[in-house]
């Protein structure tokens, strides 16, 4: 069973060796930039919109990063979050799934800023890789304006891929947070949980951040036990996925539980349950009375779909 996986393409030409010359490259006639507003990329149909860097929309630009040459042409990503739409939907912007669109008055109506989660299966893998990189690095730029060592202001250098502190000389780089996400099975059943803030009927496999000093296997066992009281034995790597919310790497694993009784941590989960293979088939078909089908794009759905499609021992 093939299941779509977003933000997991083969990458693109980031031209890291050119980052020292980003300021010069920015002035070249063929250079283009994608635009992001509050982390939402500017999209037309299934493509990121590439604009000339001297477009009026960038007159009041914020942070800017050099992405490289994804298609042989220099490409930047520019934050325009200083723009204030006339009719902003604050409730939609704060929702778990933001389905609002923002249209800039200087752009055609078919071009709009759309939440990345809403674009999970719309953008092709190549475009999604670019969007994920832009969002993650611009989010890092926004939140790292001051030096973590001395507290003084930092300056973006190397095309936005580094921040330097002139006061103490410290150099800061974008970070990626490793997250384990695991399909836990036992006796032909899989373990799923519902986050405390998630919509009703939205269940998924368990996940959690890897802590300092941990291996992937140890993080899987710890997270599963902390959230559900289930103990885990074997752990195997399955696949990975960039997850720019804000800047994580999802490390997909399969694991075999060694216990059955669920004792949830109410601060982490609202509920957790075992699903048989037949019940999971109902979930994917949309026929389960308590569990909605997984969203297309996230790695959780891929892990569950692969397990469901596997031949039983």
From TrEMBL:
| Identification of the protein by name | NAD(+) diphosphatase
Swiss-Prot/TrEMBL catalytic activity: a 5'-end NAD(+)-phospho-ribonucleoside in mRNA + H2O = a 5'-end phospho-adenosine-phospho-ribonucleoside in mRNA + beta-nicotinamide D-ribonucleotide + 2 H(+)
What is its EC class?
hydrolase
All copies of domain Nudix hydrolase, residue ranges: 174-305
Q: Name one Pfam family in it.
A: Zn_ribbon_NUD
Query: What Gene3D superfamilies does this protein's entry cite?
Result: 3.90.79.20, Nucleoside Triphosphate Pyrophosphohydrolase
Family, per entry: Belongs to the Nudix hydrolase family. NudC subfamily.
> What InterPro entries does this protein map onto?
NAD-cap_RNA_hydrolase_NudC, NADH_PPase-like_N, NudC-like_C, Nudix_hydrolase, NUDIX_hydrolase-like_dom_sf, NUDIX_hydrolase_CS, NUDIX_hydrolase_dom, Znr_NADH_PPase
Q: Which UniProt keywords apply?
A: Hydrolase, Magnesium, Metal-binding, NAD
Q: What is its EC number?
A: 3.6.1.22
PANTHER family, per the entry: NAD-CAPPED RNA HYDROLASE NUDT12 (PTHR42904:SF6), NUDIX HYDROLASE, NUDC SUBFAMILY (PTHR42904)
Identify the cofactor(s).
Mg(2+); Zn(2+)
Its transmembrane ranges are none
What is the species of this protein?
Marivivens donghaensis
The source's superkingdom equals: Bacteria
Q: Which GO terms describe its molecular function?
A: hydrolase activity
Q: Which PROSITE patterns match?
A: NUDIX, NUDIX_BOX
